[in-house]
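User: I'm putting together notes for a lab meeting next week and I want to include a structural view of one of the chains we've been expressing. I don't have a solved structure, so I'd like a prediction I can at least talk through. The sequence is below, exactly as it appears in our construct file.
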Amino acid sequence: MNARSKIILVDDIVANLEQGRNMLKTFHAVYPAQSAAKLFEILENVIPDLILLDVNMPEMDGYETIRRLKADERYAGIPVIFLTAQNDVDSELEGLGLGAADYISKPFSAPLLLKRIENHLLIARQKQDLLKKQAELQEYANNLQAMVQEKTEEVLELQNVVLAAVADLVEFRDKSTGRHIMRTQLYLKALVEELMQDAAYEKELSALDMNFFLQSAQLHDVGKIAISDLILNKPGKLTPEEFEIMKTHVSAGVDALERILDHTKRHAFLNNALVIIGTHHEKWDGSGYPLGLKGHNIPLAGQLMAVVDVYDALISNRAYKKAFTPDDACRIIENSAGTHFNPVLIDVFRKVKDKFARIAQENTG
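Assistant: Thanks for the context. Below is the predicted structure for the 365-residue chain, given as structure tokens.
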């Protein structure tokens, strides 16, 4: 038991105060209070370790007093032991129900009172120690969470830098597609944000982590690294044989990513990239490549990428064609609803086509 714990003893009878003080003063600093009003007056200057509270007092009895104590956050945690001549079960239940730590009937012996006080002070100290440990653990957890968040952001930043470098490498080799990767990523963001307003694809969109999804879109043409410069930068239309070779950039990209997946755990970013790379040249009517997927068998990520990829190809100069105007590009895409593209996505595209035109104008090069 800690020496000189502070105890406020509340009783309206002076003789009881004197008797209680004599019992306790050897081990505790005792503050006598002849009324509830005096108790609250003392509490303005002294926060005790425990309160011994008489039940039957004039003006404000013990029950009303403990209600006020528990209602004040400054005093709510102080253990209160009721001292009373009442020894009926209902009175004891009422006191305990109001938050009393114990209920001791008068008359009581000094050894018993001291032992009960010792036990409750020990419980109070253990509770304070536990709360302190909980606070320390919470602070540690908060700091750990902040550290994890910081490291996660660092990894994401590094990942995005590497992605951008790979994307730049692809664009550097394919000299006809200046800033294509940046623009398609911005188109994709606009299209997805508009699609989120439509409940038709709520389930599919909820399964996509937008940060990883949008970043992984940068890799949609990564397989072009495997295509010969003679074909990739041919100054004219490709022959059927050359076009078949060009189409292999999809399988080359998928194979490259599969090799990465063989040496690492599955990750939302890699999964998104694999789907986008492998399916962005599929067509709604099944005439696309490399798998000839049809309709809803084409993953939503691939359907979305197909729209933005074709739009940017149409408005861009190529060795085999001049750039279409944004209006003409939109007309071609809209006329391809149900053949090349999912009609639902084209309805969404119509709502953001002006935004696409602004993105293209602001990111030329």
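A couple of points you could mention at the meeting. The chain has two domains: 5-134, 174-362. The chain has a mean pLDDT of 86.

User: Perfect, that's what I needed.
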